[in-house]
Fold this sequence. Notes:
The structure holds two protein chains of two kinds.
Chain A: H1 2-14, H2 16-51, H3 58-64, H4 71-96, H5 104-119, H6 127-156, H7 160-180, H8 214-231, H9 233-243, H10 245-250, H11 255-282, H12 293-303, H13 308-332, H14 338-363
Helix pairs in contact in A: 1-2, 2-14, 3-13, 4-8, 4-11, 4-12, 4-13, 5-6, 5-7, 5-11, 5-12, 6-7, 6-11, 8-9, 8-13, 9-11, 12-13, 12-14
Chain B: H1 7-36, H2 44-62, H3 65-89, H4 94-117, E1 130-131, H5 141-145, E2 147-148, H6 150-168, H7 170-180, H8 182-187, H9 192-218, H10 230-240, H11 245-267, H12 275-294
Helix pairs in contact in B: 1-6, 1-9, 1-10, 1-11, 2-3, 2-4, 2-9, 2-10, 3-4, 3-9, 6-7, 6-11, 7-9, 10-11, 10-12, 11-12
Amino acid sequence: MTQVEQGGRGDAASRPYFRMGRILTGTATAIALPAAAVAIALLCGAVLLTLNGFNGTDVINVMLLGVFQDMRSVSEILLKATPLILIGTGLCVAFRCKMWNIGAEGQLYAGAVAATLVGVSFEGLSPWLYVPAVMIAGALGGAFWGGIAGYLKVRFHASEIVTTIMLNYIALITTSYLVTGPMKDAGAAYPQSARLLRESWLPALFTGMRVHIGIVIALVLALALYVFLYRSSAGYAMRVVGINPHAARYAGIKPGRNMISAMCISGGMAGLAGAIEIAGITHRLYQTISPGYGFEAIAVALLAGNNPLGAIASGGLFAVLRSGAELMQINSQVPQVLVLVIQGIVILSVVAFAAFRWRPGRKS
Amino acid sequence: MQDLLTLGFLAALLGAAWRLATPLIFAAIGEVFSERAGILNIGLEGTMLMGAFCGFAATFATGHIGLGLMAGIAAGMIFGLIFAFFTITVKANQIVVGAAINLLGLGLTSFLFRTYYVSTGRGVEIAAPVRIPWLSDLPFFGQAVFRQNPIVYSTVIVTILATILLYRSSFGLTLRAVGDHPKAVDVAGRSVAAYRYGAVLLGTGLAGLGGAFLTLGHSNQFVEGITSGRGFIALAVVIFARWSPVGAFFVSLLFGLFYALQLQLQAQPMGNVPYQVFQALPYLMTIIAVVVVGGKTVAPRSLGVPYNER
């Protein structure tokens, strides 16, 4: 996908008359192909349901459309979209730099642990200071966890795919140790941390609904990362490293530094997502605060073609599908894990389309 | 603390380690073939889950463990075929396709399990232990180590066969060339794609077998996510073992030892060391392993790179 977009951009700039047309067709394919991929995946989901004795049309009626019944369910969708957009846009940066960060789940947990440590500790702090402090702690925790993999890659050529996967497990095991041991709420029967001080909670957007300002943070940061990637020289350097590290070196760009930065950015976004889950919803650290957002966000970034603006749309879509899957389980006992199958097929369709699209360019 | 050091305890630990290493041995040796041909399959986790589920379902329906194992292998190979089609024919990114395969494996097996089996709560009869004439009579070790089911013993045979196939057959020679120098193979008039398909199918078949062992030779039930990261650990085993089947056997055994220790400590706490330390140890070891091995150029040279025919 990279190659086509790079080529397209260059052509458009050199031939101003075609510019508008190129942008329009570019946008159209950028929307049409993911839409087709989602349609194929939903169709496969419907077939799977029908084959196993469920109602196949539920995929459209419940999963895609049924969740928009009232404001409350929209609020729940936004809650799910928040971590997906945050992590997904962060992964766009890492993937653009060709750092295969599979460890967002662990980075989310690292951020959640750091945020909880800060959130339970400082009594009497003003919310204006406390909320940002918790957010920053989360982002730093995640950035640190992601940075480890980046450093090991650059310093020791240790495959980031393997190290990030392993760091996932280590983060999960550490969290489970912390909430059953040192950080356990003394009075609680279940493994959980003490409750965050109220001043550190994220304020709600509307009274009576759970949706909080986390979604605003996610949208602003997604926009900021888009500007960073495509309108700043630092972001440009990162993309060059992703396309060709050797060429980058000749151009005076340090690949190692950019690779570590990309891992820190994507780790930081995942850590922030963890902090937002803690400070916005659960207000405590649990062993399982994420239902796999870190893995789902990989699909979010891929569906968006690793473009942060696209990740807003794909993150929103996946949140709808996840809410819909929950609704389907409640309404007609369809196991909600169906959503994982749909995500898998979305990814396969996207890569198939992408290959189909860029093959002619490569031959020339 | 006392009985930690007795010979009997060590023997029991070794026996458990071999049993717990068995799925890793199958999956890792399979992945050795795949990676030697230049294909990095991070979809092993989902592939093993398919093997575990289909093996369980087939044995549940027929009562035959042999049929279950074959179903596990077949299920793994079907996922392998999907993976191979997208990575070799479509030439898509191997990591992206692997991630999709993992989602599909987890989603599909959990969906089908919840739809058909979760409410039955019934398990299957797992493979029974078999005595080996002379070895099982050894003092201490005979009882604990050589009281395994035939699937566990077969890891030794698979390791030997894999070594012969990889290093002493023309198929193996070409396969290794495909991973190091695909163009040379192409110029010599053999199909790179065909060898890569073969390697991936061999690898995923073994991964499916490793998954099936979990439900037919270890626990008698399918549980969602029963592989619990073994597919990923197998990837690490391959690196640690420097892409050799014999190495994969012994490294898997080492990881099996960690699993066994951790289970032992959960049952019998030792001092104030939290059992999570041992739980995290295999993952920590893996990171150390890739750091140590990472810098050296022992990996197949074209690993992860799609090949365009001339």
